[in-house]
Fold:
Amino acid sequence: MVLLLLVASRSALATPVERLGEAIRFQTVSYQDRSAIDYVEFERLQQYLRSTFVRVFSQLEVETVNDHSLILTWQGREPALPPVLFTAHMDVVPVEPGTEDDWDYPPFAGVVADGRIYGRGTLDDKVGLMGDLEAVEQLLAEGFTPQRTIVLAFGHDEEISGRDGASAIAARLSERGLHFDWMVDEGGMLLSDNPLLPKQLTAMINIAEKGYLTLTLVASGEGGHSSNPPAISTIGRLAAALGRIEANPFPPRLVAPVAAMLEAMAPHVEQPERMVFENLWLTDWLVARQMAQARSTNPYVRTTTALTMFNAGMKENVVPQRAEAKVNFRLLPGDTAEGVVAYITELIDDPQIEISYDQWMNVPPVATIDGSGYTAIKAAVEAVYPDALVVPSLLVATTDTRHYIDLVDNQYRFHGVQLSITQATSIHGTNEWITVDSYLKSIEVARHMLMLGGS
Structure:
């Protein structure tokens, strides 16, 4: 008890920036092999949150789901109004072994230096978790009570599908008979150097996200001693197939969320781009082909293909009888797992390569830009960043939102952090960081979203 009081006292004296740094130090890493996860770190993080955000955990209804996920219910003055849902996640991806020395500071040290906060989770997604809690704590201190009920849901395994976190949270909310007007999750952000509009700070509210599919390819064949190899080895067969896959990407095309983004940008770009963006009914093929040429914009117009794993062999002088690879696809709205498998099967054209997959279900539909949720998020951004251009967009990754499809009318993705394209590459990569100013402003954006969403 004394220790908890000391932690609470120390947290109360800390700043939001220092508290985010502290949260980074809890190594809440989700490993694909769930048996490798250290759940003690999740318990320690929860204890820290409870002792740090005292008003939140004493004034809101708190429910723990599957030991590590949280539901926080902020009862509104008018319970008959449809509630709104704010989500984030506590877990982070591992740091690739051998890359630790490539970080400016240790990835779990939570160092604050040079106007930045460093560490795994500063962008994905402890920034969202802590930012939401900071905003609610501040509003409670000011005596604010929302008109409609606000629910905050924080899962603990988003990075490995959300099976035990968001999925279980959604089931619990369904049991309570809740149905939300709209929700906001991670994903969207403010880009300082949007390649389509480099001189304009752009706030991208994701109204849709891409689907997720991983194919497992297995080549089987003759093995044996390396002194007498077969004409075509399993490794060679599989490598040839992967080469064909990588050399033949899916054709680019313009989907509705990206078209809406370009149309919103049209008045702010120079000619001839303005004319092109204003006439997408005619120029969509040209725009898609052009965007596919750059790595930063290619994911917006193409179902992407990523070779992610290759496993074969056990000894340098033994030809393996089996080689396995995994290929990850991020699907544009409208593309299906069945369509991808058919395309890849025809492309490989090799009956000695077996293709299998587990399909992620419930790809979220495209949300409206005319609803109260988009309006509230847009107004919140403009209150903090009056010079930003707010546009709808497509999230080229995936989130926990798919678990809430049946509970929400419209799903959006946006945390009010500002960063550059180069900085965004550190998400799931090396040297993840956020500026102090960006984090503090993201809390302000969250405050406005909560106030506007709760009205």
